[in-house]
Design goal:
The chain is an alpha+beta fold. It has four domains: 3-51, no CATH class; 71-183, no CATH class; 216-292, no CATH class; 295-364, OB fold (Dihydrolipoamide Acetyltransferase, E2P) (Beta Barrel). Helix content is 39%, strand content 20%. The protein has helices at residues 3-21, 36-48, 54-63, 77-108, 113-124, 132-141, 157-181, 189-192, 199-202, 216-232; strands at 71-76, 146-151, 257-262, 265-272, 275-283, 290-293, 298-299, 307-309, 312-316, 319-324, 327-331, 346-351, 354-360. The chain has a four-stranded antiparallel beta sheet. Strand 9 and strand 10 (319-324) form a beta hairpin. Helix 6 (132-141) crosses helix 7. The chain is globular, with a radius of gyration of 23 Å.
Length: 373
């Protein structure tokens, strides 16, 4: 058990003890008059109230079990609703805790402002007209029986809820396309059209139409310049030479992913409607600066003795992405007994098709993403 997990367990235990000793502690305010012991208990609870409860810690641990499979996962809509209801309280606490910590950190370090803005956006995504509960209600209204989302074993409640939300966005957007472009040929028109939904449901990402109001040649030129500008961020990194080799007008498909490491931050970005959008922001730690495409990463060879050493850029259900030479290698998460973390710099050796971590990259000793406390 590492130090972070141990600290989380201690805080979860203290929260449980305080609630059992003072059942009404949540209703107590520091400005209230009352027994000194109750006020002191409330002060103690305020200091750790953003920590995960024991139930959430146990859920994450069980979720990482050997039977867990990463990747697209489909659940009946009723089961998805039940899990969302159970996860949302923990997800809201996690979002609030992260945003609060980053608010203070970004005030001291301006390079963390993108991370703070991203944290507040993730927090806002849990509620409102386009929150997961409202999107789920829209799916139920149109009669969807299942929900598909990207499942990452051991994900936090916040990440799991947002993965559900992203899956619901995709399903609603797909219906939107069918309504405008017509149903597939093998599907009759009456089957393809469900109940009418509010237009706001489909604009789940808050896109605006100004970009598409310009002539085609202007849009192409602007997008090409944007691509070249992003690539230029990688100069000075291990991928610096690759930026000049990509033509300015070359098309990057929607769904493409990249990690941008710069200005003290690590940004995970995804391509959507011709633009890169930040999905998550973390401190840079000691990751090398640069722009690292994930969707074009080379699959790691699982031959006996194949060795990979370098920083872990990103971990998802699709793969474990590691800096390797002048590019990025993608390992299958299922190949690991214990998946490395972002910021680790392991030396990975394949033995009988399994990815074994034998040590750290000797050139990257001590590297890793810092943890906010």
């Amino acid at each position: 058990m590492d130090a972070v997990t141990r600290d989380n367990l201690y805080m979860a235990r203290d929260i449980e003890v305080l609630h059992r000793a003072f059942p009404d502690i949540e209703a107590v305010k520091l400005s209230d008059e009352g027994p000194r012991s109750l006020i002191q208990a409330r002060m103690s609870l305020n200091m750790i109230n953003g920590a995960d409860r024991l139930q959430e810690i146990v859920r994450q641990s069980v979720d990482r079990g050997p039977a867990s499979i990463a990747g697209p996962h489909t659940l009946p809509i009723g089961e998805a609703e039940a899990e969302l209801s159970a996860l949302l309280p923990a997800a809201r606490r996690q979002a609030e805790s992260i945003a609060t910590r980053l608010a203070t950190a970004s005030y001291r370090n301006r390079s963390l402002e993108p991370a703070y803005k991203h944290a507040t956006a993730r927090k806002a995504a849990l509620d409102g007209e386009l929150g997961p509960e409202q999107l789920l209600s829209a799916l139920q209204s149109r009669g969807d029986a299942d929900l598909t989302f990207e499942r990452v074993p051991g994900a936090t409640a916040l990440d799991r809820v947002l993965a559900y939300r992203e899956g619901m966005e995709r399903q609603l957007a797909q219906q939107h396309k069918e309504r405008h472009n017509g149903p597939p040929r093998e599907t009759s028109e009456s089957q393809a059209h469900g109940p009418e939904l509010d237009a706001k449901v489909f604009d789940v990402r808050g896109r605006h139409a100004e970009e598409f109001s310009r002539p085609q040649h202007e849009r192409s030129s602007a997008q090409g310049g944007s691509v070249q500008g992003l690539l230029s961020l990688g100069r000075g990194s291990t991928l610096a030479g690759l930026a000049d080799k990509v033509p300015a007008g070359r098309s990057i498909p929607d769904g493409a992913e990249q990690v941008v490491v710069m200005n003290g931050s690590r940004l995970h970005e995804r391509r959507y409607e011709g633009k890169w959008e930040v999905q998550k922001s973390d401190p840079q730690g000691m990751l090398p600066k640069g722009v690292f495409r994930l969707d074009t990463a080379a699959s790691a060879k699982a031959d006996d003795g194949a060795t990979y050493a370098g920083s872990i850029l990103h971990v998802s259900a699709r793969g474990v992405y590691q800096v390797h030479g002048n590019g990025v290698a993608r390992h299958e998460p299922a190949a690991f007994q214990q998946v490395p973390k972002i910021g680790d710099s392991p030396k990975i050796v394949y033995v009988q098709g399994r990815a074994t971590i034998t040590g750290r990259d000797p050139q990257s000793q001590g590297l890793g993403l810092g943890r906010s406390r």
